[in-house]
């Protein structure tokens, strides 16, 4: 060394060295004390191993309630099941954006007809694929909300077709590394914000974010209508098929706007009866009077009594022969359904719209000269809409056990925590609902928000895989995120209650692929889903599907019993995810950028 020991003492640096050493010793003492004594939440991964293969010494050293930090470099899984898993990338021209139930080209090619959009409906492969989706070249961590509403990385959704196809309508513009969304649209010639104001100006009964909270935007384009309504406390479910309007739903979800892939074809939409406060269609290219009016009758089914349908399309405001014929057919159909025209008008740009309202009682149905369309049979009432064919009938208005029509929910935000109109009238139902709300408020505040390592500032799009009453979503309402609440088809049907609360969701079967693009959610949540799911589904295929729809850097929060967690932990780890367990019932996984 340049300084001798003698000069070191002459310069009186020994006290400094002694102090530094003492500080280092104190730090090491506190570090190991915190890890081993003061923080009983930390323990090893041993409790996740198969019980028969876990040593007694490992078990005895584990805390009964703890956070198991799984170190990929040091953990050796004893589960032969996980050890036998090997992964490969999906191949083919659509692999990067592969949606198994919508990209089953073999099944689509075998269809006998495409007249009613059968080729845009679900055709799930058997068995479910186990390959992993590759990342687009240059993929980046998504632009955070709220900036993402107006701009996203081009490399994350590298589809230029809409940029050129809709350049005159200002749907989307490419600016350097970004895709920019200026708020234009086919019907939004003065901008979507002006269009939204025009609707409320046209009908003062429409109060955004108060009596109008959950809406459906049919044929939504890039979902700018729903995106701009978010600032008014309106939650819009934007939907469109996977069609020649390349990646429009993928754009929407990358922007952080609620959206799903769907089509009005031969089957019911995956929503409950009487769900939406308002339904919107701006040049959505749906032939409402086709097949005896089945498409519009399907909207009638999912529209809340007293709810509104806003239709902005050329037949409303143009006089050429084709548009006149469409308008006349619409007049006949809506009259037969007892829909009332509330307003019909045009804005300063010449774009017009008509606002219909669904009846709140059966008096009009009873006064029709012809029972056409007929009222649906009782067996069609409040049916889960999963692979259910469309019917040409008017859905029954909802009534309680005393024969009283359901009332409109309380204004937002009171409706989130008040008793839902569609809640069962059984004596214990109300108590059960409020207990569930209280439970999830506690779990989210005491566990999820601060104690499990989730960086909530990076979370925008959330999927609750079995949402129950929507308590998880309700407990997160003060965060800048939205939740897609899923009700599995084999669980109690509570989706109407979720919509009553001012939240959105749909039905799904987790034995099959979900209708969304890859890399569209930041966080997936479930509560005791896998305990029942493993009895009838391929759990590995379900995990592969979770990997498909979760973004790199995204999280899974799984609340379940330890037997289910012991199965799931090694599978996630084989995908190179970081995994931890809290209190022997919460598995937390974080997906990385690894691909095989």
TrEMBL record:
Keyword terms of this UniProt record: Glycoprotein, Membrane, Methyltransferase, Signal-anchor, Transferase, Transmembrane, Transmembrane helix
Answer whether the UniProt record assigns the keyword Membrane to this protein: yes
Subcellular localization is given as: Endomembrane system; Membrane
The protein's superkingdom reads: Eukaryota
What is the E.C. number? 2.1.1.-
Gene Ontology CC, one term? endosome
According to UniProt, the name of this protein is: Methyltransferase
